[in-house]
């Protein structure tokens, strides 16, 4: 039920906001998203599809529009899982062991050499491996990457965790003591195409329709798992419900959608995105970021793990990459006198700015930051990426206050009065 009608021109953040953004509503959505019914919401599973359908139903109920006139709130796309059946790599006439080769490809067959048009690059001894490797994450052309053997221990990290975009460029990583002038790579792969989906809803802007403000969170989680947990203890409850990671952020996105639709005074277009496949490589956000011109996105609020108290206690959260744009400062200024504080991320050594879906947009220059309360020092908070990330560990009242504070802090962006500075993509490196 819509409680506030469109005729309200100015909105006071008094009791009215509580009618939509309250602990009871947090609990209703959280309960559904983190229930065993959703089977831990792993990408490519039935549970993930169920969660997407639930979010889409809620977007519809809230009265949102679909993205770009699409028939559905589900933004579907295909990815390909690649299994290499046979592989032969030669460098200057010498065969390379299969364990020294990693293929990122969605081609059924690769048959290439130094004259096939693949760009030859190398990660030399002494370079910063993670920074160099990140350059080939979403390749704009085909690459052969020679990696110095001094990086042998980091090399396995290049192994794809999930799948590749269909028809994406290929990257061939080869661990070798020296670059080769003459090389050949032959591989035969079995491909399995799988569909996945983001859930995207829109509230068109009243005047600045082509300026977007995004609210996002990822609805996928780790699914059903056995074996041992992070600390080596046997797993007894096999469903990883991900109540905090990131049913909490998804809940916030859904509630903000309902709230902004009800107050109905946004001059800019608001886009609400529940991303898939964050946990296996951020593919949902990557696909989403290719559907528009990043220059049109004025700000992105990515919401991740806001279910527990931050290190400063209640009524506070932190913003990652605080110094990469002035968005955080503006948000905090908009909250002046509210008793709520957004702090700069206190765990900068953990690289959180680059560890969630905001990074995909930040790399394109968008002021895109993650809002979180999770204690992420080493070791991180006790339920992180464990089956014990259950609804009972969340503080619904505090979550409601955080969501309200995001709404209030975003008011200037939504109205078009405030525009944060752009992130410098050169500043966004692993
Ligand atoms: Zn997460």
Quick summary:
This protein is α/β, with parallel strands linked by helices and 430 residues long.
Please, could you describe this protein's structure?
- This protein is α/β, with parallel strands linked by helices.
- The protein has 2 domains: 297 residues, Zn peptidases (Aminopeptidase, 3-Layer(aba) Sandwich); 112 residues.
- Strand 6, helix 4 and strand 7 form a beta-alpha-beta unit.
- The site of zinc ion has 5 residues, from helix 5.
Number of strands: 18
State the helix count. Answer: 10
The name of the CATH superfamily of the largest domain reads Zn peptidases
SS-based class: alpha/beta
Give the oligomer, counting copies of the same chain as homo and different chains as hetero.
Answer: single chain
Question: Compute the gyration radius: what is it?
Answer: 23 Å
Describe the biggest sheet? 12 strands, mixed
* The CATH class of the largest domain: Alpha Beta
CATH architecture classification name of the largest domain: 3-Layer(aba) Sandwich
Bound molecules: zinc ion
Mean pLDDT: 92
Q: Topology as H/E string? A: HHHEEEEEEHEEEEEEEHEHEEHEHEHH
Q: Find the CATH topology of the largest domain.
A: Aminopeptidase
Strand content: 25-35%
In whole angstroms, the N-to-C terminal distance is: 45 Å
Domain tally? 2
Low-confidence stretches at least 5 residues in length (pLDDT < 50)?
A: 1-12
Instruction: Bin the helical content.
Output: 10-25%
What is the 3D form?
globular
